[in-house]
Design goal:
The protein is 48% helix and 16% strand. α5 (183-201) crosses α6 (214-226), α9 (290-302) crosses α18 (421-448) and α23 crosses α24. It has 578 residues and is an alpha/beta fold. It has 4 domains: 5-170, Glutamine Phosphoribosylpyrophosphate, subunit 1, domain 1; 183-319 and 432-498, HUPs (Rossmann fold, 3-Layer(aba) Sandwich), CATH 3.40.50.620; 322-426, no CATH class; 508-572, no CATH class. The strands form 3 sheets. Strands 3, 4, 5, 6, 7, 11 and 12 form a 7-stranded antiparallel beta sheet that branches. A hairpin with a 5-residue loop joins β11 and β12 (166-170).
């Protein structure tokens, strides 16, 4: 973290650009044109250096023409003498980018702490970001934990005025197909595209995460196919019922004859690394499976691996999440004639029907169905379930926009170039669930373990291919991942294709009940957190009581996100009080 140095570029626009040249950055200058490449880029599917990328940008007729030729895991910062700087991210923002404008100076870095460490910059924790964090368990772009510091959204270009004011353009929003003429050809094309993507990313001493699900099994299987030696795969196991999937990982490992290793994570080991993991993220980050990702990456590193292939993305490309099928059912309400829908709602969604056992589900369906997407996806959000007033302190609520989280979701949802709600949900998940949450988790935990991570299922070629498969083919009725499973028939083991979805979860709620170190850490941390005046003290007490008596997993997650927030604040903003 914070390796490298700051480099100053003054353009004719009088806006001074300061770029942080971290360990992942390469800079090239040519006739007063400058490009900083964070990560790695490909042009027309071939590795490209910063000079080639800059030349292509200068020669391209438009941003869309330039972007259509790019792939990889990158952020580009470009400065030309006749224009103000621009920042361009890959389709999933796999390389983060932060910017901060002060007077006539613009600071850009792939590390938030590099901006924070500048002697001429004084940053303040954003109360809006804290509100967003408790809502999402992360802080989605363009907001960051600090006021007036922003991060670039996935698949976006940000340009700047002469005064440093930012303007976003969507650089990646593909078209979605409505028809498919040849299913069998599409199945083969799917597997071929995955194989090419894995081969492209399988460089160095490489291994793969293997949870035993469809995505990690596909990546592991393709790695075994393209590697000249026995492929290495790694899993995390838990001795807690409902969390351990090592038997499914072993099915895939045997199916493809991989060199498979399993680490059984114990609560004592998790407790020992808890604080380090929570404080490593540059912003508060509440995805509890981060711990599992870190231990798995560290385990692989100890086995000689320096590059790990992750299986993230398949569900979001080929409709594998339960919520997609569930929302299709709710969308039936909107297909009714308006008068009929309103009549049904009056008859079956009222105070009387909500009390009648046989009609309670009908009333619940109607209540949810009347909320339009994407807001309906947040039905079971802690904030919506418990209520804003029951969670946040009055002092914090006075200074935030409680509608902003939903507005952010709505903006991304509306960017999708498809009228099909499944396509729109997939697109939203690319730009939110993956870009702001899952990829942040895996990337930062691999960084902490000193391992490079690559995402072959999020290769631009595969995302583009997924858009050629109509939503109804990906998800006919309620058959999750139907197209993808048929494409993988004969390649993956039958048990893998029929198993229910799981993943690298963490049994924090269960561990907190039995492990004294975790229990003590949790109570001490939450006692400190109460004094921040971010949430109501009653919320902390309610979460602890409900965790012990109602739902260990559900309220364990709420406890986790508060504990992680407090640990982060202790390191980065110890004096903060809302």
């Amino acid at each position: 973290m914070q390796e490298g140095k700051w480099h100053k570029i003054v353009s004719s626009s009088d806006l001074e650009l300061n770029v942080h040249l971290s360990s992942s950055a390469v800079m090239h200058s040519d006739d007063d044109n400058h490009l900083v490449l964070y990560g790695y880029a490909l042009l027309d599917e071939k590795n490209a250096d910063a000079q080639q990328v800059l030349s292509t940008y200068l020669e391209s007729s438009s941003l869309s023409d330039f972007y259509s030729r790019l792939s990889g895991q990158f952020t580009l910062v470009i400065a030309k003498p006749d224009t103000t700087p621009v920042i361009i991210t890959d389709q999933l923002a796999t390389k983060p980018c932060y910017y901060f404008a002060q007077k006539q100076s613009l600071y850009v870095s792939d590390e938030l702490r590099a901006i924070k460490s500048l002697p001429e910059v004084e940053l303040t924790v954003s109360k809006q970001a804290l509100y967003n964090y408790l809502y999402f368990h992360c802080i989605p772009a363009p907001t960051t934990i600090y006021q007036n510091v922003f991060k670039v959204e996935a698949g976006a270009m940000v340009s700047f005025s002469k005064t440093g004011e930012a303007h976003k353009t969507v650089a990646y929003s593909p078209e979605f197909a409505n028809t498919l003429s040849d299913h069998n050809k599409a199945y083969q094309d799917c597997l071929n595209t995955v194989e090419k993507a894995v081969k492209k990313h399988a460089q160095g001493e490489v291994g793969a995460f293997l949870s035993g699900g469809l995505d990690s099994s596909t990546v592991s299987g393709m790695l075994a196919k393209v590697e000249s030696k026995q492929a290495k795969t790694f899993s995390i196991g838990f001795e807690v019922a409902g969390y351990d999937e090592t038997e499914y990982a072993m099915i895939t490992a045997k199916h493809f004859d991989t060199d498979h290793k399993v680490l059984y994570l114990k609560p004592d080991a998790a407790a020992q690394e808890f604080v380090k993991v929570a404080q490593y993220f540059e912003e508060p980050f509440g995805n509890s499976s981060a711990m599992a990702a870190y231990f798995c990456a560290k385990f692989a590193k100890e086995d000689g691996v320096n590059v790990l292939l992750a299986g993230d993305g398949g569900d979001e490309l080929f409709a594998g999440n339960e919520r997609y099928a569930k929302q299709k059912v709710f969308e039936l309400y909107f297909k009714m004639p308006k008068f009929l829908g309103e009549t049904i709602n009056v008859l079956f969604n009222n105070s009387l029907t909500r009390k009648i056992p046989g009609l309670k589900k009908v009333a619940s369906y109607l209540a949810q169905a009347r909320v339009t997407l994407p807001g309906r996806l947040q039905t079971y959000n802690f904030v919506n379930q418990l209520g804003v007033e029951a969670i946040y302190s009055a002092d914090l609520l006075k200074e935030v926009d409680t509608n902003l989280p939903l507005q952010q979701l709505q903006q991304r949802y509306n960017e999708c170039k498809s009228d099909d709600p499944v396509d729109a949900m997939l697109y939203l998940d690319w730009k939110f669930t993956l870009a702001d949450n899952d990829l942040v988790k895996v990337s930062k935990m691999c960084e902490l373990a000193d391992v490079e991570v690559r995402y072959p299922l999020l290769d631009k070629s595969l995302i583009d291919f997924s858009c050629t498969i109509p939503a109804e083919v990906k998800l006919p009725g309620s058959e999750l991942r139907d197209f993808y499973k048929k494409a993988c028939k004969g390649f993956l083991a039958d048990e893998t294709l029929t198993k229910s979805k799981h993943g690298f979860g963490l049994p924090f709620g269960a561990w907190m009940k039995e492990n004294e170190t975790l229990k003590t850490l949790t109570f001490e941390t939450l006692n400190s957190f109460k004094k921040r005046n971010i949430v109501k003290e009653s919320l902390v007490e309610q979460a602890l009581e409900a965790h012990n008596s109602v739902h260990t997993g559900y309220f364990g997650e709420l406890i986790w996100i508060m504990v992680v927030l407090e640990l982060w604040l202790q390191k980065e903003a110890s004096d903060f009080v809302a």
